What does this fold into?
Amino acid sequence: MKKIFALFVAALTLWSCDKNFEEINTSPNNSQTTDPNLLLSSAMITTQNTLYNAQIGGDMGLCWAQQWSKVQYNSEERYTPRRAVMNSVWTNIYASSIAECKAAYELAGTSGNTNLQAISLVLEANNFQILTDIFGPVPFNEAVVPGITKPVHDTEEVVYDGILDLLDQAEALFANGSGEFTETADFIYQGDVTKWRKFGASLKLKALMRISGKRNVSAEVTALVNSGLLMSSNDDSAQLAYTASQPDANPIYETIVYGNRAEYKVSSVLVDELNQLADPRLSKFAQVNDANAYVGNVPGVENPGNYNGFSSPGEDYLSPTLPGVLLSYAQVEFYLAEAALNGIIPGGIPTADTHYRNGITANMDFNGVSSSAVATYLSQPSLDFTTVTAGKEKIGLQMWFALYGQGIEAWTEWRRTGQPALSPVVDAQISVIPKRFYYSTDSQNFNQANYQAAVALLDNGDTMLSKVWWMN
It folds into this structure.
């Protein structure tokens, strides 16, 4: 493990801010290692460490989704981000993770390890989806291509077509695959190729449902359901295993606990939504305050003199071993519930209800809620829905609950579903909850023409007011 994290540090050094855009869009085969197993280890660690970084997934994910709130130092929560932090997302995902996935694919091919090639494609697709969902138009067809130093930013629709193609290629390789992913290098499935195949199919479902408001995805989603390849239990969830000690612990722990950044609290919005349903996850998501009560901070309001008056995130969510979730079985079930509700797959409201309840049960099980408490919760009439409109609200709310702790993904799904209904925080510096990140300064400084062309595709330019393609 230490060796892999050393590689991770080396990768970040390689793609440091001293490197301009021309230098990072070079051949991935110039990597420091020729072992594709180690390249994929580094890629998965880089991605999850980025998403679980408290200044990224906390400040600009969980706070923007209003699951967390900060009682001090809350500029990002009020939509004044640090551009250098946004730059790091671009650098880590594009210049490191995607480049390493591409290099791993090529190197695995030289040894005929088609299963490892398939896994490389799945992780590459996952990273491209993160990148385009955060920024909008991004390089895809010319991304990390030798000889192209100023890549064109493709439209989000083109990027999504590319993501789906990567996952189709991965499935074709899995179907007749050979070779392995070294167990000790695989921090997600410990070398279980069958589970990687399920992750690839489930990631395709996620991509299709994210763009389902823009195109008819019924045939593709129905085919996935009929394939039998989708995740079918929490054991199939894709999540990175962190360890109990630094530097291999979850970054949330490293910042809030080890780094003593106690300003991070749960939000009043989260506490209120959970209380309305007598949801047993409240004690999992939050700790009691100094008065032995669950009290969330009002998003955007600073209370620097009263740290102990508000509930901190739950103990499990501050644990060094909190897994870094890429995609959960619960999220897959909520996508299937939505698909049935909207007629994308057959079954209508009854089938939607089944998947909806499967998703709730899966997330409660993940959070350690007892089976009896789950049964009591599911029996309450307030969870039922008999119309499409009510179903969208309730499925969307439960998706929001299930994505607690997954900052960027929680914010991204909220941008798609709009559930629960949220308003900009107190003292917000812009008029809406941010819809995207600013482009990196590297793109602006070293790829000016293509940067300007990408900005022209956005409805409000390179601002946080511009919608990404799939948003309503």
